[in-house]
Amino acid sequence: MFLPINNMPELPEVETIVNALRDGRSEYRTSVVGLTVSGAEVLWVKTLATPGEEEFKARVREQLITGLSRRGKFLVFSLTQDFFLIHLRMSGDLRLEDREDECGSPKPFEKHDRLALNFKEGSRLVFNDTRKFGRAWLVKDPAEVTGELGPEPMDASFTAQQFHQMLNTRGRLLKPLLMDQTFIAGLGNIYTDEALHLAKLHPLTQSNEISLNQSRRLLEAIRAVLTEGIRRNGASIDWVYRGGDFQNHFQAYGRTGEPCPVCGTLIERLVVGQRGTHICPNCQPIH
User: Fold this and answer.
1) If you ran DSSP here, which 8-state letter would residue 266 be given?
2) Is residue 137 assigned to a domain?
3) Domain stops at, among 88, 112, 146
4) 169 shares a domain with 99
5) pTM above 0.85, yes or no
6) How far apart are CA 232 and CA 146, in angstroms?
7) How many domains are there within the chain?
């Protein structure tokens, strides 16, 4: 199976990282919640979106991490006075590690490390980002960063009727609309392709032509593929995000020329909104 490597972590991958960091799972070994910041190191200044470097270092010092959550594709660290947000973008990764090696010497940073929070407990949280697209913010209110995001697709209060109204008030192609973070938060190329395949909807369908029943089916499909993605710890398809196995269960994404698991028709690749898109022409006819 050919899988492109230019996909950023989506909602399930970010949720997996949040759960692991918060609960001390996987390679993180211990929870980041309850650690106290002793200082910060900004290794590439553009990684820090706001505030400036000196203010960031002064403000974050002595703050306790009281919680960790996700909003869309953002990691949201709750501190005693502020909120620290990270967006991994295409190649961001987080390490929680000891600051010293086994000999007690300071552990050197890796080549693509961009920012680090040092903790009084002797560890540090390091943001590594090969392509330099990731960003971090220290703000009083996370809405300063996430305020324009659309609804969370997994939120039980987000109804099919609301979703249908949102779709019908916009005359846009379905796939680019679903990937618009101001429309709905957390979907990217992989899970949009998977959800559209499950819902049997073509990505070039106009959103204002979607019926209420189709809207309900699509919302159910979005939730189903996200839930399965989270259950499988996301998809691991490149050198950045690792540990998940949802890539072994794709129904459409990246399966060009392979038989559709539903009907056996060969999966086709087309370009929608400048993004490689994978469909079953039989299950997802264009009307």
Assistant:
1) B
2) yes
3) 146
4) no
5) yes
6) 26
7) 2
Look at the block and give the residue holding tokens 């910060």.
40
273: tokens are 């909104």
Q: Are 43 and 113 in contact (CB under 8 A)?
A: yes
Terminal Cα distance for the chain, rounded: 29
- Whose CA is closest to 258, among 267, 249, 245? 267
Would you name the residues annotated as active-site residues?
Answer: 9-10, 73, 275
| pLDDT tens, residue by residue, 8-58 | 689 999 999 999 999 987 677 789 999 999 999 999 999 999 999 999 999
Tokens of 227: 């839930």
Beta-sheet strand order (sheet of 37-42): 37-42, 113-119, 123-129, 92-98
For residue 27, which of 233, 226, 191, 237 has the smallest C-alpha distance? 233
Q: CA-CA distance, 119 to 65, in Å (whole number)? A: 10
pLDDT at 240 over 60: no
DSSP state, residue 6: -
d(CA 47, CA 127): 9
Give the tens place of pLDDT for each residue, 63-84: 999 999 999 999 999 999 999 9
